[in-house]
């Protein structure tokens, strides 16, 4: 209601909502922007923005197709609302690498993608790190990184102002400038403000960030906080404790100096470990843990899929919106090139279940019909226990899709975890029901072994 009171109350629909109350609800849920209302005066607009601003500021890095937004969270626990803006993952290149090596790694970062549960997981940015301290060399590395990437955000990493300035001369579209420390915070903050860039602050501990925030905020409010990533035997617990301390202070105590996104750097492991496999492993589990504990941006060195996939999977899971049902449309789906003799399998419309089943069948080269029933987005075992996976539910989808006209047989294969409803499905549909496997990865072998890959009518 506090938001609604600041709106003009015209119910004009200019914002795209039929009433001001609907617009207020969308503002609270962050589905609309205050500036969508053309009738707000300057004072009301300012008050409205202050009222709905999250305790953790949103910061935009880069512009256009390269743009990523970090921060913006309002809660400590996802079930209280949701987590906003999944943390982008940047990977490093270094100015002491050969030009061909830089270009090759940038290409790997740009082209990296893995499909999981119907979503393509990708990397988000390139962090160009100065190791030589030479402005000209750094500028060339930035140029190669920018030219070799299409939609990746850019971070410029150096403690030297002249080196960073050389990088900004090449790319000046709001790259992240990092790290500002006790020794260089004033000139780096001034440089970031001059080029309208977000600035990453680095300290060795949480408390040491406070004076840096005070000094940097005199120049810019687009800040990220790095409380010092820990390395060694206690890397996970020490680093995540720092991140949690910052986030709790910002949200529970409304401590303004910590009301900024956090930044984690795991890439130093590339130089702390002799074995690149060990380095990648340590980066992987540290970054994955930090995703769980409020990291808003992560800078890694490794581009190995086996090391990145746990991090990206963790991010995908943690940043799934619990307010939205995780379901696919019920209906009949083709896997491969099914015909009248292809098997008919049944599953639920829980998104994860559907994509696992469909993916395993596709990977196994199975041609079949996949009948997806409406269980309200619940998995097989849960929907069986809750009474959503029933014979009537299966019959309803069969009638809607006309599966009887598409196959010459009358055989259904249900999940192993749905064995309890076998009789109910047979009674409701009149079809023979075969109980399949507990795990969808076993389906291709099961169908072949049981002679169900081709069913004669």
Reconstruct the topology from this structure:
Blueprint: H1 2-5, H2 20-28, H3 42-52, E1 58-61, E2 68-71, E3 89-94, H4 99-111, E4 113-116, E5 119-122, E6 125-129, H5 135-147, E7 153-157, H6 161-170, E8 176-180, H7 185-194, E9 199-202, H8 209-216, E10 223-226, H9 235-251, E11 263-265, H10 269-272, H11 276-292, E12 297-300, H12 305-318, E13 331-335, E14 344-348, H13 351-363, E15 368-373, H14 380-386, H15 391-401, E16 411-414, H16 422-429, E17 432-435, H17 443-449
Helix pairs in contact: 4-5, 5-6, 9-11, 11-12, 15-16
What name is given to the CATH topology of the largest domain? TIM Barrel
Tally the beta strands: 17
What top-tier CATH class of the largest domain fits best? Alpha Beta
Q: Count the domains.
A: 3
Rg, nearest Å: 27 Å
Average pLDDT confidence is 93
User: Which outline best applies?
Assistant: globular
Assembly type of the shown chains? Answer: single chain
Terminal Cα span = 64 Å
Give the name of the CATH superfamily of the largest domain: Dihydropteroate synthase-like
Largest sheet properties: 8 strands, parallel
Going across the biggest sheet, name each strand in turn.
10-9-8-7-6-3-12-11
Task: Count every helix, treating DSSP H or I runs of 4 or more residues as helices.
Answer: 17
CATH architecture of the largest domain: Alpha-Beta Barrel
* Helix proportion: 25-40%
Proportion of beta-strand residues? 15-25%
Low-pLDDT stretches are: none
Structural class: alpha/beta
Q: What do these coordinates show?
A:
- With 457 residues, this protein is of the alpha/beta class.
- The protein has three domains: 2-52, Electron transport complex subunit B, putative Fe-S cluster (3-methyladenine DNA Glycosylase II, Chain A, domain 3), CATH 1.10.15; 58-318, Alpha-Beta Barrel (TIM Barrel); 331-449, Rossmann fold (3-Layer(aba) Sandwich), CATH 3.40.50.11600.
- The protein is 39% helix and 17% strand.
- It has 17 helices and 17 strands.
- The chain has an eight-stranded parallel sheet with strand order 10-9-8-7-6-3-12-11. Strands 13-15-14-16-17 form a five-stranded mixed sheet, with helices on both faces. The chain has a two-stranded antiparallel ribbon with strand order 1-2.
- Helix 11 (276-292) runs parallel beside helix 12 (305-318).
- The longest helix is centred in the middle third of the chain and has 17 residues, at 235-251.
- The model has no long low-confidence stretch (mean pLDDT 93).
């Amino acid at each position: 209601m506090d938001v609604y009171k600041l709106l003009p109350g015209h119910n004009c629909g200019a914002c795209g909502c039929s009433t001001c109350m609907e617009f207020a609800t969308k503002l609270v849920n962050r589905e609309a922007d205050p500036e969508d209302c053309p009738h707000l005066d300057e004072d009301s607009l300012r008050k409205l923005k202050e009222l709905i601003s999250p305790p953790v500021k949103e910061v935009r890095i880069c512009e256009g197709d390269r743009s990523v937004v970090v921060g913006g969270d309002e809660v400590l626990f996802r079930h209280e609302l949701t987590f906003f803006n999944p943390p982008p993952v940047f990977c490093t290149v270094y100015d002491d690498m050969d030009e061909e090596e830089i270009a090759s790694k940038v290409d790997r970062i740009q082209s990296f993608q893995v499909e999981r549960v119907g979503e393509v997981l990708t990397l988000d940015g390139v962090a160009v790190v100065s190791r030589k301290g030479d402005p000209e060399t750094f500028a060339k590395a930035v140029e190669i990184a920018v030219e070799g990437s299409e939609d990746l955000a850019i971070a410029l990493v150096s403690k030297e102002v002249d080196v960073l300035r050389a990088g900004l001369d090449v790319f000046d579209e709001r790259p992240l400038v990092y790290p500002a420390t006790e020794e260089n915070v004033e000139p780096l903050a001034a440089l970031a403000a001059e080029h309208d860039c977000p600035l990453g602050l680095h300290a060795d501990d949480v408390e040491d960030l406070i004076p840096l925030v005070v000094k940097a905020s005199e120049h810019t409010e687009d800040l990220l906080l790095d409380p010092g990533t820990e390395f060694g035997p206690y890397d996970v617990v020490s680093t995540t404790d720092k991140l949690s301390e910052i986030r709790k202070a910002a949200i529970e105590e409304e401590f303004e100096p910590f009301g900024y996104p956090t930044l984690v750097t795991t890439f130093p492991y590339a130089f702390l470990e002799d074995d690149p496999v060990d380095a990648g492993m340590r980066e992987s589990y540290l970054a994955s843990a930090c995703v769980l504990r409020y990291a808003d941006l992560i800078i890694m060195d490794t581009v190995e899929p086996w090391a990145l996939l746990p991090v990206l999977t963790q991010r995908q899971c943690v940043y799934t919106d619990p307010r939205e049902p995780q379901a696919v449309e019920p209906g009949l789906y083709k896997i491969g090139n099914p015909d009248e003799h292809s098997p008919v399998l049944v599953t639920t419309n829980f998104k994860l279940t559907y994509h696992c089943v469909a993916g395993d069948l596709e990977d196994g080269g199975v041609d079949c019909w996949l009948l997806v029933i409406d269980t309200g987005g619940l998995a097989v075992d849960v929907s069986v226990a809750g009474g959503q996976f029933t014979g009537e539910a299966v019959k309803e989808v069969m009638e809607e899709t006309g599966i009887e006209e598409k196959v010459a047989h009358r055989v259904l294969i249900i999940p192993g975890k749905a064995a309890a409803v076998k009789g109910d499905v047979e009674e409701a549909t009149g079809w023979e029901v075969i109980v399949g496997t507990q795990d969808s990865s076993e389906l291709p072998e099961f169908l072949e072994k049981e002679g169900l890959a081709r069913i004669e009518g």
